[in-house]
Amino acid sequence: MSGLVRQLSNVFKLRIGFTIAFTAVAGVAITPGPGLEPWQLAVLALAVLISSASAGGYNQYMERDLDARMHRTSNRPFVTGALHHGPYFLVILGCMLAASVGAAAYWLNGMSALYVFLGAFVYSIVYTSWLKRRTWLNIVFGGLAGSFAVLAGAAAVDPQLGILPVLFAVVLFLWTPSHFWSLAIVLHEDYKAAGVPMLPVVVGDRKAAQVIFVNTVMLVGVSLIPAWYGMGWIYLMGAAAGGAFFLFKNLQLLRDPSVKMARANFHASLIQLTLLLAAAIADVGILG
Q1: What is the pLDDT of residues 182-240, one digit of tens each?
Q2: What does the pLDDT look like over 97-141, one tens digit per residue?
Q3: What value does the CA radius of gyration of the chain take, rounded to a whole number of Å?
Q4: What residues have CB less than 8 Å from 219, skipping those under 6 apart?
Q5: 287 φ, ψ (degrees, to nearest 5)
Q6: What number of CA atoms fall less than 13 Å from residue 70's CA on the CB side?
Q7: Residues 100, 51: contact at Cβ < 8 Å?
Q8: How far is CA 227 from CA 39, 41, 67, 154, 170, in A?
Q9: Which of these, 11, 171, 210, 33, lies nearest to 112 by C-alpha position?
Q10: Is the pLDDT of residue 90 over 80?
Q11: Which residues face 36 on adjacent strands?
């Protein structure tokens, strides 16, 4: 049973899904208006989690050939044969996406449901099918998946998006490249072997570290702006502390664009995002 759970967690990328669901909850928190009832918040989180899982499953279904050439992903279920690579799986994924979007539309509202759908569409079709094998900009546009999760949470409170949800969507858009390109330095040889044009493969690790730093400077700058649009001191402290730590790790990566420093920067990105979102939720609360 535990093996099955691990396989399902792997194929549906549930760790990523829980992170994206957390961003949707933060979208609720930072949106002015009446808070959601606990059951509505649960519907939102599950809708985003399930739609993300459908996109993650589609990613693994479509990338079996790439995964087989990368050491990190060589144990994924479609590579090992634990799951059969057949059209039935696409039907399951389609049903998952339809159920998540339908639940958001019925129990929340149409705009929230639209953003739930767009998040999955961007990751599965735009990132996985259209861009990943073709351009180093793949993850830049793929980062919109996280942005749509924030907007899904915000729209559940108020379908007319204000400045704060848009700012947080920009933060998520900028966070993804710094996060993922750090991992791509760690996995440089894997992506090179698979023929995937991630930024470090295209321009080299040192140049990639420079791009990551510039992107992180923009990320941290934008993450502080919400403090001037209604967010309080708890948010500002969390955003400033997480941003400062992430920038420090970025500077270390600039000086030494090694696998060790890139891995540390990757983990720093997770700490930065967690502090930012947790501070936003703590600052204003989420339940009416």
Answers
A1: 999 999 999 999 999 999 999 999 999 999 999 999 999 999 999 999 999 999 999 99
A2: 999 999 999 999 999 999 999 999 999 999 999 999 999 999 999
A3: 19
A4: 171, 174, 175, 178, 243, 246
A5: -110, 140
A6: 20
A7: yes
A8: 29, 24, 42, 17, 15
A9: 33
A10: yes
A11: 287
Give the torsion through C-alpha atoms of 18, 23, 28, 29, to 10 deg. Answer: 110
DSSP 29-89: HTS-SPPBPHHHHHHHHHHHHHHHHHHHHHHHHHTHHHHHT-TTTTTSHHHHTSS--SHHH
Let me know: does 212 contact 265? Beta carbons within 8 Å: yes
Q: What would the two tokens of residue 95 be?
A: 């049903």
Q: Which fold has domain 2-284?
A: Tetracycline Repressor; domain 2 (1.10.357)
Distances (CA, A) of 156 to 14, 163, 283: 23, 15, 19
Q: Name the pLDDT band for 288 (thresholds 50, 70, 90).
A: very low
Which amino acid would we find at residue 142?
A: G
Other CB atoms within 10 Å distance of the CB of residue 55: 27
Task: Please identify which residue in the block is written with the tokens 């990566």.
Answer: 253
Q: 89-93, 149-153, 255-259, 283-287: lowest mean pLDDT where? A: 283-287
State pTM to two decimals.
0.94
Which candidate, 125, 123, 95, 106, places its Cα nearest to that of 44? 106
Q: Enter the DSSP assignment of 228.
A: G
CA-to-CA separations, 67 to 52, 54, 79, 185, 236, in angstroms, rounded: 19, 18, 7, 17, 40
What confidence tier does 8 reach under pLDDT thresholds 50, 70, 90? Answer: confident
Classify residue 214 by burial, with Cβ atoms within 10 Å: 0-12, 13-18, 19+.
exposed
